[in-house]
């Protein structure tokens, strides 16, 4: 996922796999003694090489972030690393004028995504699930933004928002000097302008996840509801929606992660200047900006890490517990 | 239900609710495409015309000039090439390595299996910014004289390939291990008893059965890696070495003087993903939902 937002988002939809697996995992255990020495080496390489790569680049760096957050470092020699305790965090929480707005914007990002495009994506999925004609065509239209890169989406929406040449201002006549509505420059407007573009993309993503969820709803449930004389809304509320629980969990996790990962769109729009600060932008600015304060940048990354893990850990525990039971 | 309702259903009478639904969906779909259509329309018009007549106006002529200009002026072919030399090895390596891990985790019952899978899956869910600062330093510190043009992992295609593989293999390992777990154990057991090597079990027996999942993941990975903006932005410093998405961001500030040209340029970058999507739609969608719905 990561083309997720980022790019990724990846937004990767790693998620709960319900459904039982009929085979017994234990089956192979008895065959372990069948493995030759060469087999063992092969297996060790097969598991080892990818693990080393993944752990070295993802987990070791994540842990290094935590370590560096308690130091100052100019990045030149290792001997210039100095332990400063909680100084970076104190500075971050008390003196950085961008930090709390960034936290607030990340929260707003999540709240907007979960309240507007998510239910709308569900609504579209329910409509498209009715086996109507042209369903594929509609699906493609809603899903197209998910296929395009976030950076490209940023460029496309700039054409819509541009103060003097953009679609909106041209239509409402706000493109004359003195009457500009500066959708991207105005700190009171720009976050919302970006969020419209983000919601535009998120709707299609959610629609696809819900469509897949709806396909796995047992048709006999619907029939039973129809026989009981339940209306469309009642069927949805009491029969369909409760069975979508696994999908809802995935959707919630994906949306939180997307909100934490949000970066590309804002960076292309205005580099996260006034009004669109995000935690991800603050971290990145410490690397590609003029000021390279490694310890300080890492402290922001640690805040991001702690929030992410607060979501990832309970989710994975639940997912894997289910898997083990299966 | 009485028998008379059946033939009625088959004829599918035109119901007002259905018509209304179609009107709603068609309208919404059109509104959804509006920003993209607007970009296409802008890109098809010369700058001279829109600057005098305004953007919301009837066109005098529509040309592909902006597309050809954007393509030539910004040397797009070169940047497409940069993306290709990152994306192709990254997708292949990710699939290969993650299927190895998945095979290990799902076909053998070693003690640390679940923990291993957990590490991979959790790693993929982290926001990239959590790891970027140390990663950036690590890339600067890794000297590879003679192997990469920059002499370091930093500013090299190899560096991008490695981080894509490391990051994306989390998702793929999770999906593939679920998939492999659903394959009947008898297949590999019989072969194992017959004395087949572990590698053979993986390469000749398990992997061919995973084709549908691999195809879905390959589609998904190609689009994700092609669309990557962040890694390239931070880990590549020379404009020349940038893949297409981040190169365009660079160029839009430097060379492009009119929005029509930017529109054409950004639409051009979207074309390869659109082709992949339309050609492999089913794989793409099933890939996205593999993680969330398949057992």
TrEMBL record, chain A:
Gene Ontology CC: one annotated term: plasma membrane
Membrane topology: Multi-pass membrane protein
Domain ABC transmembrane type-1: 103-317
Origin: domain of life: Bacteria
Cellular compartment(s): Cell membrane
Chain intervals for the UniProt region annotation (Disordered): 1-31
Key words, A-Z: Cell membrane, Membrane, Transmembrane, Transmembrane helix, Transport
GO terms classed as biological process: transmembrane transport
InterPro entries named among the record's database cross-references: MetI-like, MetI-like_sf, UgpAE/MalFG_permease
Transmembrane regions listed in the UniProt entry: 41-70, 107-128, 140-160, 191-212, 250-269, 294-317
Low complexity biased stretches: 1-16
PANTHER family the record matches: BLL4140 PROTEIN (PTHR43227)
Family the UniProt entry places it in: Belongs to the binding-protein-dependent transport system permease family.
Protein name, UniProt field: ABC transporter permease subunit
TrEMBL record, chain B:
GO biological process: transmembrane transport
Spans through the membrane: 20-41, 84-105, 112-136, 156-180, 201-226, 261-280
Database matches in Pfam families: BPD_transp_1
InterPro entries linked: MetI-like, MetI-like_sf
Main location class: membrane
Topology class, membrane: Multi-pass membrane protein
Domain ABC transmembrane type-1: 80-280
Keywords assigned by UniProt, alphabetized: Cell membrane, Membrane, Transmembrane, Transmembrane helix, Transport
Domain of life: Bacteria
CDD domains tied to this protein: TM_PBP2
A single cellular component GO annotation: plasma membrane
Subcellular location: Cell membrane
Family: Belongs to the binding-protein-dependent transport system permease family.
Protein name: ABC transporter permease subunit
């Amino acid at each position: 996922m990561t083309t997720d937002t980022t790019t990724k988002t990846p937004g990767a939809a790693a998620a709960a796999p319900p459904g039982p697996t009929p085979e017994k995992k234990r089956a192979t255990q008895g065959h372990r003694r069948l493995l030759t020495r060469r087999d063992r080496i092969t297996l060790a390489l097969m598991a080892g090489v990818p693990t080393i790569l993944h752990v070295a680049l993802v987990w070791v760096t994540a842990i290094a972030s935590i370590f560096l957050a308690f130091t100052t470092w100019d990045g030149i020699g290792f001997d210039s690393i100095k332990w400063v305790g909680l100084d970076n965090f104190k500075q971050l929480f008390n003196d950085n004028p961008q930090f709390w707005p960034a936290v607030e914007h990340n929260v707003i990002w999540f709240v907007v995504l979960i309240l507007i495009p998510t239910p709308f994506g569900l609504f579209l999925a329910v409509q498209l699930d009715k086996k109507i004609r042209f369903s594929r065509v509609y699906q493609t239209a809603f899903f197209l933004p998910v296929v395009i890169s976030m950076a490209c989406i940023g460029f496309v929406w700039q054409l819509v928002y541009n103060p003097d040449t953009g679609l909106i201002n041209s239509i409402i006549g706000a493109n004359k000097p003195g009457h500009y509505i500066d959708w991207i420059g105005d700190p009171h407007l720009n976050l919302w302008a970006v969020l419209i573009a983000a919601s535009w993309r998120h709707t299609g993503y959610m629609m696809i996840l819900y469509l897949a969820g709806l396909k796995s709803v047992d048709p006999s449930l619907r029939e039973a509801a129809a026989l009981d004389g339940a209306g469309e809304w009642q069927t949805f509320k009491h029969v369909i929606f409760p069975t979508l629980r696994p999908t809802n969990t995935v959707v919630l996790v994906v949306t939180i992660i997307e909100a934490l990962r949000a970066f590309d769109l804002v960076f292309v729009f205005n580099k996260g200047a006034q009004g669109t600060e995000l935690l991800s932008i603050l971290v990145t600015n410490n690397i590609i900006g003029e000021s390279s304060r490694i310890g300080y940048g890492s402290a922001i990354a640690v805040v991001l890490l702690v929030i992410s893990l607060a979501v990832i850990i309970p989710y994975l525990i639940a997912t894997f517990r289910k898997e083990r039971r299966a | 239900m009485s028998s008379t309702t059946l033939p009625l259903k088959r004829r599918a009478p035109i119901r007002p609710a259905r018509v209304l639904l179609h009107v709603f969906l068609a309208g919404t779909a059109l509104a959804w495409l509006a920003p993209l259509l607007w970009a296409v329309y802008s890109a098809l018009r010369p700058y001279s015309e829109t600057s005098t007549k305004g953007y919301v106006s009837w066109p005098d002529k529509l040309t592909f000039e902006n597309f050809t200009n954007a393509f030539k002026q910004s040397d797009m072919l070169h940047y497409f090439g940069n993306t290709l030399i990152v994306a192709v090895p990254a997708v292949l390596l990710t699939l290969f390595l993650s299927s190895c891990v998945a095979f290990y985790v799902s076909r053998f019952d070693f003690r640390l299996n679940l923990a291993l899978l957990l590490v991979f899956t959790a790693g993929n869910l982290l926001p990239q910014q959590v790891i970027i600062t140390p990663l950036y330093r690590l890339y600067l510190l890794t000297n590879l004289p003679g192997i990469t043009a920059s002499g370091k992992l930093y500013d090299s295609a190899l560096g991008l390939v490695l981080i894509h593989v490391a990051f994306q293999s989390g998702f793929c390992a999770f999906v593939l291990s679920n998939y492999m777990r659903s394959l009947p154990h008898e297949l590999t057991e019989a072969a194992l008893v017959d004395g087949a090597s572990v590698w053979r079990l993986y390469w000749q027996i398990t992997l061919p059965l995973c084709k549908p999942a691999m195809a879905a993941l390959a589609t998904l990975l190609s689009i994700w890696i092609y669309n990557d903006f962040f890694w390239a932005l931070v880990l590549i410093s020379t404009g020349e070495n940038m893949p297409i998405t981040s190169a365009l961001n660079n160029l839009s500030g430097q060379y492009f003087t009119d929005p029509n040209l930017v529109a054409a340029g950004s639409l051009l970058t979207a074309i390869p993903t659109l082709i992949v999507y339309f050609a492999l739609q089913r794989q793409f969608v099933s890939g996205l939902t593999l993680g969330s719905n398949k057992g």
